[in-house]
Specification:
This protein has twelve helices and no strands. It is 63% helix and 0% strand. Helix 1 packs antiparallel against helix 2 and helix 4 crosses helix 5. The longest helix has 32 residues. It has two domains: 137 residues; 155 residues, no CATH class. The chain binds zinc ion. Zinc ion binds next to loops.
Length: 349
């Protein structure tokens, strides 16, 4: 493991350990001294030991990854499982975050709700960071790149096929979910609690079901399209696309994939076809976003590591406009996965 990758892993690892320790201690204190009244219903799952366990496993497996390099592989698997469990346990965090959006539009959040939201977000953040630490550790085990010595994946110019399939799966899931709502929207328009806030929320949701998954798999999600003044052709900061994709995927999968499907299967919610179309749509949307985001992360990883000469590879110069990454359709037949070319530096500005 070279220093750069160790640094990346350690950043996630330290943050995950701090948050998960705090999360475990708070729940342990509740276990010993009794849960405060406001904390009731902080999760749809039972309290007591249930939230302490994954947080402790997450901390322990991260410590093993740091202290016993030989045993990193099983430790990373345990960390990933514990991280996923924490995300599932904290699935109500996403609803709380959405309600934060509504506050400026006249839907205040009571102090108890806010306190529960803090606990849920801490659980989700600890779980997410634990997953990222496991992924970063696995990344550091890749063979070194012969070009830069870094540990990024193979240099690619196109997303892997499973990521493209994921992007379109997300759009299909979104379409299935909105198909249920469409008759109401056509007759009554978009209205809900919070007035303008709700309409803003629906607009964001539509973007997250169309623009976001496609940005994760299309060239215009990696370099600004040519009609964007001043930025055309420049690389888009990867976290600008990656973070919304991962956060949205985690929220949809935790809330609908686990919570929603679970409620349908256990008979908590009535399982009519419309409910399946809605919750199934949300779940596929989340799953597709996760695949597309993973492909995007792989595709842009080498760029983040500084291996691809960014300006040369992505920003076309005047004569070469359109021959760089975002290229016209007619040029795509010749498209294949090629390592970033030796031609790149010489053709740049
Ligand atoms: Zn490299």
């Amino acid at each position: 493991m070279i220093m750069v990758d160790q640094h990346r892993f350690l950043r996630f690892a330290v943050a995950a350990v701090v948050i998960n320790l705090g999360y475990a201690l708070v729940h342990l204190a509740w276990l010993i001294m009794g849960e405060p009244a406001w904390a009731h219903g902080v999760s749809v799952f039972p309290g007591g030991w249930v939230p302490v366990l994954p947080a402790v496993i997450a901390v322990a497996s991260i410590m093993i990854m740091i202290l016993v390099p030989r045993a990193w592989r099983p430790a990373a698997v345990a960390a990933a499982a514990a991280g996923a469990a924490l995300l599932a346990y904290s699935m109500l965090a996403w609803i709380g975050l959405l309600m934060l959006l509504m506050i400026p539009f006249g839907l205040p959040m009571p102090a108890d709700d806010l306190a529960r939201l803090v606990v849920r977000v801490a659980g989700a953040a600890g779980g997410g960071l634990t997953l990222l630490a496991a992924v970063a550790r696995a990344r550091a085990s890749r063979p070194a790149c012969p070009r830069c010595g870094g540990r990024h994946p193979d240099l690619r110019t196109r997303p892997p096929g499973w990521a493209v399939a994921g992007g379109w799966l997300a759009v299909a899931g979104f379409a299935a979910r909105f198909a249920v709502e469409l008759p109401d929207i056509l007759t009554a328009g978009v209205s809900g609690p919070g007035g303008l806030g709700f309409q803003l929320f629906v607009a964001l949701l539509v973007l997250a079901g169309t623009v976001l998954p496609l940005a994760l798999i299309r060239p215009w999600g990696r370099a600004w399209p040519r009609w964007v003044p001043g930025l055309a052709g420049r690389r888009i900061p990867r976290l600008l696309v990656l973070v919304p994709g991962l956060v949205m995927a985690a929220g949809l999968l935790a809330y609908f994939g686990i919570g929603g499907i679970g409620a349908l299967l256990t008979g908590h919610d009535s399982a009519d076809p419309a409910a399946w179309l809605m919750i199934g749509g949300y779940t596929l949307w989340g799953l597709g976003l996760l695949l597309a985001a993973a492909g995007y992360a792989r595709l842009t990883d080498s760029v983040a590591a500084g291996c691809v000469p960014v300006r040369a590879a992505v920003v076309p110069n005047r004569q070469n406009a359109g021959r760089g990454e975002p290229r016209p359709r007619s040029d795509r037949s010749k498209d294949h996965e090629q390592p970033h070319g030796p031609q790149a530096p010489s053709t740049a500005g």
